[in-house]
Every structure is written in structure tokens, then in C-alpha cells.
Amino acid sequence: xxxxxxxxxxxxxxxxxxxxLYTITLTNPLAPKTATVTETQTMYKASQESECYVIDAxxxxxxxxxHDYFYTINRYTLTRVARNKSRLRVSTELxxxxxPWGLVKSFIEKNFWSGLEDYFRHxxxxxxxxxxxxxxxxxxxSPKEKVSKQSTVRRRKRAHTHLRxxxxxxxxxxxxxxxxxxxxxxxxxxxxxxxxxxxxxESPSGFHLQSVSRLLLVISFVxxxxxxxxxxxxxxxxxxxxxxxxxxxxxxxxxQERLPQSQTEWAQLLESQQKYHDTxxxxxxxxxxxxxxxxxxxx
Length: 299
Fold this sequence. Notes:
Elements: E1 4-5, E2 9-10, E3 16-25, E4 34-43, E5 52-61, E6 70-82, E7 85-96, H1 102-139, H2 143-168, H3 181-192, H4 204-255, H5 263-298
Antiparallel strand pairs: 1-3, 2-3, 3-4, 4-5, 5-6, 6-7
Helix pairs in contact: 1-4, 4-5
């Protein structure tokens, strides 16, 4: 919606450029409902009127997560194959302005491909409707017009077959093709081939659900690991406390078995109590030291 077409401008190198502004609707739950888009189209001078058009579209989507990290290059190659028939070939590439880290890059690429497939499925649907409308108009014509039209197609088809090859050899290579030697070979292959990229039947939302499920799985695993570590720490602290309480109760029971009857026994009792207190003090120091070490490990 809100489409604004700026006029074509001819560049010094012979190419023509124009800028298109529009708004798209997004279905990603992690993104806003709408986003503005700036699309810069470049029609190369190798394009031949009524024969072949090659247009590169640089697409910048604003108001989406990490929109300043990437942009899209779509190449549209429209080739005439008959009087009333053309072949449209689209190649695309995701380019980065800044290099994101692993998880963000995976998020960008999955959403990029799902959104792109949804966009071109919609384009295919609209072209199919246009084709159906055109065929319906052709069928409503009189039989004489159909016969004259078919004969014209047969006569002109041979002529265009000879004219098309030199024009196509001037067409630029696909987006990802780096060398000039592959240009002519690839364009000839495009003109005579109907190979297309296989699009899986999975819905675009499947990509988002898959990425979200993996992220939830990782978070769940980390939480379970933290719970296990906390339980182990609690168990060790509880065992230390239990051992100290047991030793204290057992020593108290020993002291209450029989009261001393003489001064010598009282002196021995006091000496044993002093040793007991020294031993308990040393044990508590070890308990505190062990607790501090466990806390440092948790950190």
C-alpha cells in the first residue's frame, strides 16, 4: 500500500534507475504489523525493447528487527519467447551491511527466505489471474481472428528465434555470477530452460515456529541445568549442617553419661571440654571454608 513511483532517470553509463516507496504487511510475531520499504530499481542498458529486460531491485526494509544489518538484491529477467508469451526468471541475494553474530544471522536468513517466498507466491498468484483474464479474452474472439492470430504467431516465431540470441548475449549475468565468461552461457541456459528453485510446501510460519521452538529448547535445557546445580549445592550444605548437629548432640550425650565425683575428674572434664571446643572451632572453620568454596563455584 501507499505506493509512490518516482520517474525513471537515465544514468551516464546508459542504465536507467528509479525509486519506489511502499508499505508492506508483516506476519512475523516478532516484528511490527507493517513496515516501509525503499526499492531502488536499475534497468540495464543491455535490455532490448520487446525482447528482453534485466532489472535489479535493491530492497531496504525499514522498521524490522536488525534492518540496518542487511538488504536484498532481486534480479528480474523478462524474456520474450513467443508473440504472446514471456518467461520471467528471478534470482535473489541477501547482502549484509554489518556482520551479525551467529544466532542473529540465522534469525535474519530464516525470516528473509520465508518472507521472500511468501512475496513471490503472491506475485505468482497475481500473474496467474492476469493470464487467466487474458486467455478468457482471447477465447471470446471470433474464429477468423483466432486463425489469423495463430498464423501470425507461427510466421513471427521463426523471426524472433533468430533475433533473440544476440540480444540475450548482452544481458547481464545473474546476481551471484562473478565472471564475464559465464554470462553468455547462463543467459542462453535461461532462455531455453524452465528450471526453477524448488519451494517447499511448508508454510512461512513454519520457519518462525521452528526457530522459536529451538530457542525455547535451549532455554529449557539451561534452566534444568541450573536447577540441578542448585539442588546439588543445597544437598551439600544440608549434609554439612546435619553432620555438625549430629556430632554436637553425640558429644553432649557423652558428657551427660556420668557426673565427676572428685577434683581430678573435674579437671579431666574441663580439659576434655577445652579440647572439644577447640575441635568444634576447627570443624566450623572447615564448614565455613567449604561453604565459601561452593558459593564461588556457583558464581
